[in-house]
Write a structure and sequence with these properties.
By secondary structure, the chain is of the alpha+beta class. It is built from 16 helices and 8 strands. The chain has a 3-stranded antiparallel β-sheet. It has a 3-stranded mixed β-sheet with strand order 5-6-8. A hairpin with a 5-residue loop joins strand 2 and strand 3. Helix 3 runs antiparallel to helix 4 and helix 5 runs antiparallel to helix 6.
Length: about 450
């Protein structure tokens, strides 16, 4: 039961907050830890002993039903809580860096004068309006999502608040037009072929292979593409898989077929190119149509890089200005480059623009791959398409469905038929295969690869 104390003109109520006093070793003793209040809210005293007693009963009710928030926890400064939360969060390097930046530049400077328990829904709405007025739609959405995570964890995980100030409800007040996604322009096969031709003139045979690999596998650029290593490409995998049991299992399943393994993505961590698991841990095997396997076979035989798609200089593609020096000439076209003795630059013909891709990034080709699988007559199951894209199937279908070898054989047959229909039958231009190196490397791990840090490999 709560205990009410009257001291002169002030009234205070004490109640057990559900915790015990700890000893010197941090172990709970039998002594209960009491909390107290001199009013229903800060600066407002109790009117009489009855109100104080009822207030204590309400707090004890919350304790019994697991809804009590220790008053000391709510007094934690927001600046302290934000950085403690960030340190405790299990995040990928990209997310860790992005969240740290948003906390440092926006969230902590604004909320530093609040404690965790002081923030009200009105305070949040005022901040939300300022954020939306000051930043882009994408960045403001990311900021609000991060703040919601902070408050949700403060309520559910760390018990610093009774409820979150981020209240989601149906639209009320001034009407705002619904944001509309950018409309994707129709991308015919001829436009994808022109991108591949342009890539060949900009980047050589590697560029030709790069465009067709995204278009016919749906791999995520740039991360999964720049992180694809020689040993996981279809000419070497599964024989070169570093996990022997996985390699044997795959060799048995894909006997007579070709497949590559999406095992990593690559990005910068502390200014160092680093390998990590693919986005959402979407490790997967992608069956390859014969024409694409032959392209990869010729490409790997032509260079000694540990990466399937090396840069023009032969180094890691991640270290280049890819958008400026690779993608924009491929997409937007470029003037002819004639031989000039004073410049050691790649000579190339005039490159035409691909108007259907104007303003789009290379990720559009991943979307195109999914559209290709959705075409009438493709006859590919939803579970096989989602698995190929690295997505999970929601609901009961995702629980009970499984990608069978028959489904994957159908994907190979369909993609090969698309190539033969649009390229072979129409006689579209294809480049000659490059001259192989005198001694092409096998699927092992070159010494320089072993020096790269690897995060989250399975």
């Amino acid at each position: 039961m709560p205990y009410v104390e009257v001291r002169g003109s002030s009234i205070r109520v004490k109640w057990w907050g559900g915790e015990y006093i700890l000893d010197a070793d941090g172990r709970p003793t039998r002594k209960k830890k009491y909390e107290s209040a001199s009013g229903p809210s800060a600066g407002v005293p109790f009117e009489d002993e009855g109100e104080a007693h009822d207030f204590g009963l309400d707090r004890e009710h919350e304790v019994r039903h697991g809804k009590h928030t220790p008053r000391a926890g709510g007094r934690t400064p927001m600046g302290e809580y934000c950085w403690t939360w960030h340190e405790a969060a299990d995040l990928r390097p990209n997310s860790e860096r992005r969240y740290k930046s948003m906390l440092k530049t926006v969230i902590v400077p604004y909320w530093a004068r609040w404690t965790v328990g002081e923030i009200t829904a009105v305070d949040y709405d005022v901040w939300k309006r300022q954020i939306k007025a000051q930043y882009s739609d994408n960045y403001s959405s990311n900021l609000l999502s991060l703040f919601k995570m902070l408050m949700d964890d403060a309520v559910i995980k760390y018990k610093l608040r009774g409820e979150s100030p981020v209240i989601e409800q149906r639209r009320r007040g001034r009407y705002s037009k619904r944001q509309i996604r950018r409309i994707k322009q129709e991308l015919p096969f001829a436009a994808v072929h022109q991108l591949a031709v342009n890539a060949y003139h900009v980047w050589g045979f590697t560029g030709w292979a790069y465009i067709w690999t995204i278009a016919f596998t749906g791999m995520r650029p740039p991360g999964e593409m720049v992180g694809l290593q020689r040993r996981f490409a279809s000419p070497n995998w599964p024989a070169a898989d570093p996990v022997a049991a996985r390699g044997r299992e795959a060799a048995k399943r894909y006997k007579g077929m070709h497949a590559l393994r999406v095992q990593h993505q690559s990005y910068y961590v502390d200014h160092v190119p680093t390998l990590a698991g693919p986005k959402y841990d979407s490790y997967r095997t992608l069956v390859m149509p014969p024409f694409l396997h032959e392209i990869h076979e010729a490409l790997l035989a032509s260079h000694a890089s540990p990466w399937v798609f090396p840069a023009m200089t032969g180094g890691h593609l991640l270290t280049t200005e890819f958008t400026q020096n690779y993608w924009r000439p491929i997409r937007d076209g470029a003037k002819e480059r004639k031989p000039r003795p004073q410049y050691m630059r790649h000579v190339r013909p005039e490159i035409p623009a691909v108007p259907e891709m104007a303003g789009q990034d290379v990720y559009r080709l991943r979307h195109w791959h999914r559209e290709l699988l959705d075409e009438p007559g493709a006859d590919i199951s939803t579970v096989a398409k989602e698995a190929r894209m690295g997505h999970e199937v929601a609901g009961m279908e995702g629980v009970y469905s499984k990608v069978t070898i028959g489904m994957e054989m159908r994907i190979v047959e369909y993609l090969q038929a698309v190539w033969e229909k649009h390229v072979v039958a129409r006689g579209l231009w294809t480049p000659p295969f490059p001259t192989p190196l005198p001694s092409a490397p096998d699927g092992g791990v070159p010494p320089q690869f072993s020096e790269l840090p690897v995060l989250g490999e399975l």
